Amino acid sequence: MMWNKRELQRKIEEWLQEDVGFGDVTTMSTIPESEQGVGILYAKEAGIVAGLPIAEQVFSTVDSTLVFEAKVEEGAQVEVGQQIAQVSGSVRSILSGERLALNLMQRLSGIATKTSEYATAVAGTKARVVDTRKTTPGLRALEKYAVRVGGGYNHRFALYDAVMIKDNHIKGAGGIAQAVAAARAVIPHTMTVEVEAESFEQVQEALAAGADTIMLDNMSLDQMVEAVQYINGRAIVEASGGVSLETIGDIAKTGVDIISVGALTHSVKAFDISLDLNTRKR
């Protein structure tokens, strides 16, 4: 799923208003209006680059005459010191857009880099690494995009596009069978139903109720193996809870189809990117 460009444009304008407001007083008071230059964006660590199109849109929003040129492909693996992109034109405009462009690229590249590490850890198995709804408010579409750039996949986007029956829904509905039946009665035939199971008994209940996907929540490896063998392809099997780079390889080997990882977005470290300015006076 790509982001909505018009919606992103609205957000960029809001973010620039937050950061620039009525004007970048430091830049306006120190840099002549006629000053032209080139800003070089480069990596200060190794990883996966994501967000180049977003950075370009930020700079073009600040000043439509700025020229943005990517030096690597979106999703490229880069090394320390490698050029990522350059933006040329008014120095005032470059400096006014620098922070927002870098903030977004650093966040998205951090997510893509972390996702790539998890995806690499399950290589050779059938398991897919997917994200969760543990995203930054206002940035969900971009963060889920970055997961895909890093080689991962997306879970449901929001509460409205799939049914996920969890422990509190089960309690409120009076049981798994009741919750699934109630959901099936009102959702369209195109929508899937997932049920969270915390025990083998709940796996049996979810399968009997006709769940499309069964989430094995915080189960041991042995419990996962037992559940996968019991389900035997009759539903998609997802593993969730306590997933780390150290554990995901073993989880994948249990035979699950999906492994959801909240850490891809909720606690990722920003990727270090910097911008160096070269000026050329007229």
Automatic annotation (TrEMBL):
The UniProt entry's GO CC annotations, sorted and at most eight, read: cytoplasm
Q: What is its EC number?
A: 2.4.2.19
Keyword entries, A-Z:
Glycosyltransferase, Pyridine nucleotide biosynthesis, Transferase
Positions contributing to substrate binding: 99, 132-134, 156, 166, 196, 217, 240-242, 261-263
Bilayer-crossing regions:
none
Show the Pfam families listed in the entry.
QRPTase_C, QRPTase_N
InterPro entries from the xrefs? Answer: Aldolase_TIM (IPR013785), NadC (IPR004393), NadC/ModD (IPR027277), Nicotinate_pribotase-like_C (IPR036068), Quinolinate_PRibosylTase_N_sf (IPR037128), Quinolinate_PRibosylTrfase_C (IPR002638), Quinolinate_PRibosylTrfase_N (IPR022412)
Task: Supply the CDD domains for this chain.
Answer: QPRTase
Q: Which Gene3D superfamilies match?
A: Aldolase class I, Quinolinate phosphoribosyl transferase, N-terminal domain
Catalyzed reaction equations = nicotinate beta-D-ribonucleotide + CO2 + diphosphate = quinolinate + 5-phospho-alpha-D-ribose 1-diphosphate + 2 H(+)
**What range(s) does the Quinolinate phosphoribosyl transferase C-terminal domain occupy?**
111-276
Record pathway: Cofactor biosynthesis; NAD(+) biosynthesis; nicotinate D-ribonucleotide from quinolinate: step 1/1
Give start and end of each Quinolinate phosphoribosyl transferase N-terminal domain. Answer: 24-109
BP GO terms, sorted? NAD+ biosynthetic process; quinolinate catabolic process
Q: Which GO terms describe its molecular function?
A: nicotinate-nucleotide diphosphorylase (carboxylating) activity
Summarizing the function annotation, the protein's role is: Involved in the catabolism of quinolinic acid (QA).
Tell me the protein family, please: Belongs to the NadC/ModD family.
How does this chain assemble?
A: Hexamer formed by 3 homodimers.
UniProt protein name: Probable nicotinate-nucleotide pyrophosphorylase [carboxylating]
According to its UniProt entry, this protein's organism is Brevibacillus formosus
Task: Identify the coding gene.
Answer: nadC
